[in-house]
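Example 3.2
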Amino acid sequence: MRKLLLSFTGVMLVALTITIAAGPAPVVSRQSSPPVPTFARDVAPIFYSKCVTCHRAGEIGPMSLITYEEVRPWARAIERRVGEGTMPPWHAEAADGTFANERKLTAEEKDVIARWIAGGAPAGDRSDLPAPPSFVEGWTIGKPDVVFEMAEEYEVPARGAVAYEYFYIPTNLTEAKWVEAIEIRPGNRAVVHHVLAFYQAPPDTPAARPALKLPAHMKLPARITGDRPPQESKVPSRLIATYTPGSGPMMLKPGAAMRLAPGGVIELQMHYTTNGTAATDRTKVGLIFAKQPPSQEVRASHFFNAQFTIPAGDADYRVDSEVGFAEDVTLWGVFPHTHLRGKRWEYKLELPDGTVKPLLSVPRYDFNWQTYYVFKEPLVVPRGSRILSAAWYDNSPGNRANPDPKTAVTWGDQTWEEMQYTGLLYSVAPSAPAATSGAPNARLPRAGVEASAAQP
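Structure, written as tokens:
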């Protein structure tokens, strides 16, 4: 028995010696996983900043996402749409914060939503819930100073294709007005696909040298200008606002505004879609005026290529266009526009020394979610520069939205035709000569389309 005890003691001493020699045993650290996000503390602020402009009562979103009770039943659908990148609808590729009207979620915001849903989508402590954003009923821009409305309701049939309709609303402005916000409000969102609002007014001051150098390919094809009724053949001259599902109103920074000359008319290009039920619409436009003349006048113009034919069956046809600058300008925004066959856009800025820089990339253009991309920090563009645009089209059977892949497609207003059109928002350096007719004084040039672009 004594030998056994000695043997056991010897083993313990050896083990103790080995332990002391090796040092203390390593402590296994258990890194705590981050807490599950809650709706009140983490998710609601994201929805309030990125989603509820559309997803609230009376707006285009099919459900409201303001309260937890409204959001919870849609948690899995939200997870899927956010994961696919289809919600919020945003189609440009650019660094976060490039655009003032950016709708996309950051990687961190997507991660918060994913972890919240994976953790059971808890409500959280209601004391953490921020106050929801306040909205003026019926308007995103706040209460308009003036509202212009279609003279009467338009009847949309239950079925069939509806050609673009044009409506003209006299403003009866007796003096020039500076506008800092414009919003288009469809009377019936269920049948209004998109609206383009143009402003036409007689010049109220002498014409001056254009700031834009417009391309020759803006001339409309002869078959359109010669063979079709006037209302289907013209290109309106001055785009001031757009409405598409998910897009916001035109809201300019403090100190910037558009000038509307007196005696003008608002022209609405309306694209209606049928849904199986006859309906009516009476769209309106609301304006907020600047309290004083701005330090920067923002002008609305465009450039396009109307000289193209997209071959039948071609899945990747490219059409180019460009615009040059005869003056130093500040570029505020770019609006790419094609129809059902358009699939992507690229814009580049070519500087006077030949340097070419990327300006805007829209690799997943969607006719149903058109956007006026407004830069958070407007871009300074020196005279002698050019914007180079390229649009690609899918006229093949693989394009499910293609009205007829067996037909070659040319320029035209209707959705079964095509466009390669770009809207521009810009301002001219104050020291530059006025770029358009109608300058109110020598300090600020007139807003509007360049004289050579009035009616190509």
